């Protein structure tokens, strides 16, 4: 059938009354030829294939020898040949079906082609009247391939840093590079595909066929690890799997550490490891520490030439991998200031601190001609800084409050064997850029501090400020779980409690079913007209990181107006409010940027339909992270890009926390018609995993 159709096509083309004189097809171009999906090549570049390949060629017939309605049909004539083991030339031929000009034509090679033998081929086009030149004539070229029917042997794996566990069971460690060498006995292996549980997964090429390959590996966590490797030969065949098990210790402790929690009358800072640091007269011990951190006290530096600490010795070879970190709180941000540095010849070998830029103040880590900047220092606010130089990659990195800031930069550090400095940097004219503010817990590591460790160093455990379960009220007061200040219920607010006994009307027709409370034994009911509950004052500091959680169920399926479930006011506007906006079917978090009437607002939202008095309610949470200048609204434990916004400067509100209403132009408004339960407040920004635990009951410990 295919042959008859092809003949008909050719006959039609040949018999067209208006056809012009026929032109032969174009010579196939080498760039349009493939051997098993690999580019046409011969000689030293001959491709290897793992199965008898399908040869491909795009063939063209000039359009000018046909009428516009014709399709320039053309077929391909393939020839392939090789020399067998007896030295006799073998040849195979094939003619493809007729297809329109510009189509790719194929020939799948027969299974009897020999392995490990160079097979050459060429092709020409045939339009039924004439044939093109062969693809290897003139400026063309032969195509060749070698069919490889043997898979490579498994790779051996060795590592100087991670010996076999039978020799050394636990090996140091997180943040310390190891190296693995992969080598297959097969001399045609060109790459190795490898993977470790949790990553990385990658393929690395050998410098030449059969050469061994060495890869670096930076462990990001402690515990048993396993490396799997497959050797890949030039035909694409894979070896069996090789496996290498090893065990990684936790990251080793800092090589130098000054906790800076010495007594107030100290004249030097004791070293937990390393050498004690003498203090200048502009240093005051016994200062405040960041709340929620593991730091007890800090030192204050007055910004003068006497405000410094130094061990009078070098602490690290900055040409090798190292990391340096500290808690800092600037007393000003309008000039360059150094937190830590190490002396070199007329310039610091590295410098971690605050730098003034055209766009304003930024945290900075400078080393070896590279400077990484990021974050926004704020006067009087704590930040955790970590500068890292990774000698394996040659990159400098900066972490601010446990998150990488700026863009990693290539660095080439020079020797800096001078003394380590806290609070100043050596320049050509002497020590400059003295720190004005507080510094705590300075640490120096001789390894990579991995991202999870950086986050842990900067961690500040949120503190529970209040948890109101709203299960009962006495004298209009609903207690806080740990005997803190109660919530005061206004008119139109009451506590609902479910039945103390189970009732199943299908079993006992005489009983009356009483719906259970939202959570626990009771919840707050608000009438939507005057009902609310309030604390006696502000519960969270809106100028610093905070978290609020609440469970809410709307009484109406189609609310007539916006309704607030949480708010806390300043003098002129709400510092924040969480409300339901029925026109867009969204819960909204609204935070003005200033305590001014008409101030610009940050609004984030989560889409959800109103409850209509049914269901288990919705668990809402507000998280403001002052360290990253972000606000987030969570719905049932989840947030997204639409529910996240930047807020660079929170402001301190003075009004009381409100449940069920918000400030309006003429007093109070946006009264909530619905049920409220499990109001929780924290100083600090809860992690996503902890946010998902809010609103389920009386657990007060989120660790």
Given the C-alpha coordinates, what overall shape results? extended
Annotation, overall tally of beta strands: 54
Please report which band the strand proportion falls in: under 5%, 5-15%, 15-25%, 25-35%, 35-45% or over 45%: 35-45%
Query: Over all CA atoms, what is the radius of gyration?
Result: 37 Å
Low-confidence stretches: 1-19
Distance between the amino and carboxyl termini: 76 Å
- Biggest β-sheet, characterized? 8 strands, antiparallel
Number of H/I helices:
3
- Find the structural class using helix and strand composition: mainly beta
Helix percent reads under 10%
Written description of the protein model:
It is a single chain. The chain is mostly beta strands and 703 residues long. The protein is 4% helix and 42% strand. Strands 19, 22, 23, 25, 30, 31, 32 and 36 form an 8-stranded antiparallel beta sheet that branches. The protein is extended, with a radius of gyration of 37 Å. The N and C termini lie far apart (76 Å). The model is unreliable at 1-19 (pLDDT under 50).
């Amino acid at each position: 059938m295919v042959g008859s159709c092809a003949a008909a096509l050719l006959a039609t083309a040949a018999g067209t009354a208006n056809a012009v004189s026929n032109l032969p097809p174009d010579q196939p171009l080498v760039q349009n030829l493939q051997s098993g999906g690999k580019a046409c090549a011969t000689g030293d570049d001959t491709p290897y294939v793992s199965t008898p390949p399908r040869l491909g060629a795009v063939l063209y017939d000039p359009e000018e020898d046909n009428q516009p309605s014709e399709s320039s049909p053309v077929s391909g004539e393939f020839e392939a040949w090789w020399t067998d083991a007896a030295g006799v030339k073998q040849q195979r031929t094939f003619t493809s079906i007729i297809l329109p000009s510009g189509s790719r034509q194929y020939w799948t090679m027969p299974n009897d082609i020999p392995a490990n033998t160079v097979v050459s081929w060429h092709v020409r086009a045939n339009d039924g009247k004439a044939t093109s030149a062969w693809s290897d004539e003139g400026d063309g070229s032969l195509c060749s391939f070698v069919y490889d029917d043997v898979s490579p042997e498994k790779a051996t794996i060795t590592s100087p840093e991670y010996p076999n566990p039978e020799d050394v069971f636990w090996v140091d460690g997180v943040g310390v590079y190891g190296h693995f060498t992969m080598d297959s006995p097969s001399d045609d292996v060109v790459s190795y595909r490898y993977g470790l549980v949790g990553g990385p997964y990658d393929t690395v090429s050998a410098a030449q066929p059969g050469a061994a390959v060495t890869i670096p590996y930076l462990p990001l966590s402690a515990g048993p690890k396993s490396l799997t490797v497959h050797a890949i030969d030039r035909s694409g065949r894979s070896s069996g799997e090789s496996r290498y098990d090893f065990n990684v210790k936790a990251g080793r402790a800092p090589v130098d550490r000054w906790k800076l929690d010495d007594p107030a009358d100290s004249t030097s800072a004791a070293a937990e490891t390393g050498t004690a640091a003498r203090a200048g007269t502009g240093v005051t011990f016994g200062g405040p520490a960041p709340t929620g951190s593991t730091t007890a006290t800090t030192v204050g530096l007055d910004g003068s030439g006497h405000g410094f600490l130094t061990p009078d010795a070098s602490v690290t070879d900055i040409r090798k991998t190292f990391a340096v970190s500290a808690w800092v709180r600037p007393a000003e941000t309008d000039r360059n200031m150094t937190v830590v540095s190490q002396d070199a010849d007329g310039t610091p070998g590295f410098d971690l601190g605050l730098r003034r830029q055209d766009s304003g103040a930024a945290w900075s880590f400078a080393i070896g001609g590279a400077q990484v900047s990021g974050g926004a220092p704020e006067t009087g606010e704590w930040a955790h800084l970590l500068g890292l130089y990774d000698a394996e990659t040659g990159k400098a990195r900066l972490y601010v409050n446990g998150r990488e800031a700026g863009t990693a930069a290539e660095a080439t550090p020079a020797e800096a064997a001078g003394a380590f400095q806290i609070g100043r940097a050596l320049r050509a004219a002497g020590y400059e850029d003295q720190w004005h503010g507080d510094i705590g817990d300075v640490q120096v590591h001789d390894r990579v501090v991995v991202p999870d460790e950086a986050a842990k160093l900067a961690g500040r455990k949120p503190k529970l400020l209040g948890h109101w379960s709203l299960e009962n009220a006495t004298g209009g007061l609903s207690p806080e779980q740990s005997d803190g200040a109660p919530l005061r219920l206004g008119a139109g607010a009451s506590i609902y409690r479910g039945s103390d006994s189970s009732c199943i009307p299908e079993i006992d027709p005489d009983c009356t079913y009483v719906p259970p409370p939202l959570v626990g034994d009771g919840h707050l009911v608000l009438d939507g007209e005057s009902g609310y509950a309030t604390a006696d004052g502000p519960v969270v500091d809106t100028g610093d990181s905070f978290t609020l959680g609440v469970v809410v169920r709307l009484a109406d399926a189609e609310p007539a107006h916006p309704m607030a479930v949480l708010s806390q006011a300043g003098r002129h506007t709400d510092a924040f409010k969480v409300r339901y906006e029925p026109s867009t079917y969204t819960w909204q978090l609204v935070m003005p940027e200033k305590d001014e009437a008409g101030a610009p607002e940050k609004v984030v939202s989560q889409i959800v339909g109103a409850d209509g008095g049914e269901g288990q309610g919705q668990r809402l949470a507000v998280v403001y992270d002052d360290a990253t200048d972000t606000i987030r609204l969570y719905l049932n434990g989840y947030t997204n890009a639409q529910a996240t916004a930047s807020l660079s400067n929170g402001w301190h509100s003075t009004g009381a926390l409100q449940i069920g209403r918000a400030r309006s132009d003429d007093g109070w408004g946006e009264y909530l018609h619905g049920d409220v339960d499990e109001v929780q407040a924290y100083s600090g920004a809860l992690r996503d995993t902890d946010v998902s635990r809010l609103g389920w009951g009386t657990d007060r410990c989120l660790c």
